[in-house]
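Changelog-adjacent note: as of this version, every example in the card shows the full chain rather than a window. The one below runs 316 residues end to end.
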Amino acid sequence: MPLTTSKLNLTVVLFLFQLGTACTRTSEHSTAPAPSATVEGQYISRFTTFNTALADSHSPYYEVRRQMIINDLKNLDTDLVCLQEVWDPQDAEDIISAVKPRFPYTFYAKTWNLFKWRFGRNGLLLLSRGPLRNATYQPLDSFLVTRGVITADVNLRREESTTIGCTHLSTTVGKFPPYWGKYDSWDAEQAQQAQTISAIPGISLVMGDMNSSPTVAGTDIKAFMETGYQTFLKNGFVSPYIINQAPTCTWCADNVVAGNEWGNLIIDHIFIQQKLQGRVVSVKRVFDDKVPVNDGKTNSIIPMPLSDHYGITLSF
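Full-length structure tokens:
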């Protein structure tokens, strides 16, 4: 949509966005099987993060991708999934209903703020095959777009409980609008979000779209808002997807949903505390299949990715 707002109106709009920062309403929603169906001691060893790009107002091919994503989730070979950009609560409920046989434990928080983008929704959804204990949503300081983190305690091994996080950090939105938040820049805001998550007591695994990519030597991966990534490293986390192999992009220039403005990046991560590094069995890119579909515009067949991002699965 062309931006026709006058400078005066833009100033008013941005002031209202900032004014509304403290006005977000939150309600938490979870599902779990009946006690008789719960498997005592069930543990989680495979973690997956995926940004769905389910924003019907601006994401290309929303309807066809939505059904493709649901179909893939129903057959996904993992134990716990952190989804981002499930902006519409109805999409969240539809996904929860469709994947219930595989992921009976779920959690998301409805957030609402009239003065923020997409009415203050946070877009996070957690799906799990095992119990999510003490699951909660914590807001993060953010300008314009509501950001937060879902935390929960899971059984990493039968005898071991650990705290995990599912999040989506801030990113620059280019020249419009300017950054009017409480920090010096989008980068500083992102770094503070990473610092806040790192300081959560007992947290040992954090996954999501971090909107932060380092340069990877010997590859075409470019740096992008690297402050968040470096903040996690300074707090004792590592990203096995990057250090265990020669990684490929999770935001890719040849993805028809993403476009090629930013080049090839790795902005999706599963960070783990260094003490867990020796227990990683594998880490790989997922949700990267392409399905031939009619583009609906020129009546031509194109290879359709599920999203503008690809996902990552880490196994212990």
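Structural remarks: Residues 6 and 115 are 18 Å apart (CA to CA).
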